[in-house]
Amino acid sequence: MTTWITICDTCKRDGWAESGATRTDGAVLAELVESAAQGTGLRTRRTACLMGCDHSCNVAVQAMGKLNYTLGRFEPTKEAAQGIVDWALDHAASESGQVPYRNWPVAVKGHFVTRHPPLPSDDG
Ligand code: FES
User: Fold this and answer.
1) 53 in ligand 1 pocket by Cβ < 6 Å?
2) What region does 15 belong to: left with phi over 0, alpha with psi -120 to 50, or beta?
3) Which pLDDT does position 50 carry in this prediction?
4) Which of 47, 69, 76, 93 has the fewest CB atoms within 10 Å, i.e. is most exposed?
């Protein structure tokens, strides 16, 4: 199953309005994640608001039949984007979606917000 990274491209971190930035922090992070994910087999998409606005920037990592995760509190940096992609690759390689803590990139530690178990199949 393909692992998808969904990036909120409307996230704005504290101080964004005063910063004079023309692009949202989420849009900057989305571009960095898209670039880091190129050629990995991961898929990316953007969305407007994952409802975690007060702990921006936010992303979700999901695959059918696996544990799904929301991560937040990211700065829009190359290091954050690479950590998200590296962790998502381990999610893709894991049958359950669970990634052993020892494999977690430093950039994602302390950034997990929610974990959702996979939905049961329609036939039970
Ligand atoms: S704007 Fe990104 S979670 Fe709401």
Assistant:
1) yes
2) left
3) 98
4) 93
